[in-house]
């Protein structure tokens, strides 16, 4: 096993101190913000100690089998809200109605796994009834920002020949625009109903919940002729756990604790391009 320790604001001394807890046979710097420890000890106690020290030092630590690279994978599947982008789109749409606090509270509870996702989405979308559909464009233009490292990560995986999937419990208004903007191969999200230029407070068709996210990853992998173990899956909320569970590498990005605990890679401080460092 290798241990990769990285952090955008970390000193090499900090990285070395965290890596030393795993007693590496050798270490190698990866640029000036990351370090790889090779042939490391990885008992449960050591893993817990390393992760605790990393969190305290505000760096990311990942134990990974030696030799794994992007070439082992065929697909990168990403959640959208709070993963590929920095915002929760529905919360920002609700802000146009003066309801951001109320909707954000429901969103947070759903992402922590405390509420059924489909029911929570139906409840949140209902609060948007009557809002001018043009408000969606305002959210996209004024508030939507890509997460740190997103463009670097996508450029690298696309150059390596991997396909890309954006699968979201959010809305097609945003996934469609990001698909065109970023050159993504596949997207899947919820479709908001609009009548006479205003949101009705309903979603058309089935809701993209945790099960549907997992099925989407499975469908795309089948279309590509590969197993789901050749997928890297990135997410931040409880509704991402099922699709992450079928992946060959699961990545929790600035995620809720329940997601970090189950992911292969947890990027709490690094950008999305931190996965490139992990995979050499």
UniProtKB/TrEMBL annotation:
Cofactor needs: Mg(2+)
An annotated Gene Ontology molecular function: hydrolase activity
Catalytic activity: O-phospho-L-serine + H2O = L-serine + phosphate; O-phospho-D-serine + H2O = D-serine + phosphate
Gene3D superfamilies: HAD superfamily/HAD-like (3.40.50.1000)
Coiled-coil ranges from the UniProt annotation: none
Pathway in which the depicted protein is active: Amino-acid biosynthesis; L-serine biosynthesis; L-serine from 3-phospho-D-glycerate: step 3/3
Source superkingdom: Bacteria
Keywords associated with the record: Amino-acid biosynthesis, Hydrolase, Magnesium, Metal-binding, Serine biosynthesis
InterPro entries given in the database record: HAD-like_SerB, HAD-like_sf, HAD_sf, PSP
EC number: 3.1.3.3
Family of this protein: Belongs to the HAD-like hydrolase superfamily. SerB family.
NCBIfam families: HAD-SF-IB (TIGR01488), serB (TIGR00338)
Name of protein: Phosphoserine phosphatase
Organism: Massilia niabensis
Taxonomic placement: Bacteria, Pseudomonadati, Pseudomonadota, Betaproteobacteria, Burkholderiales
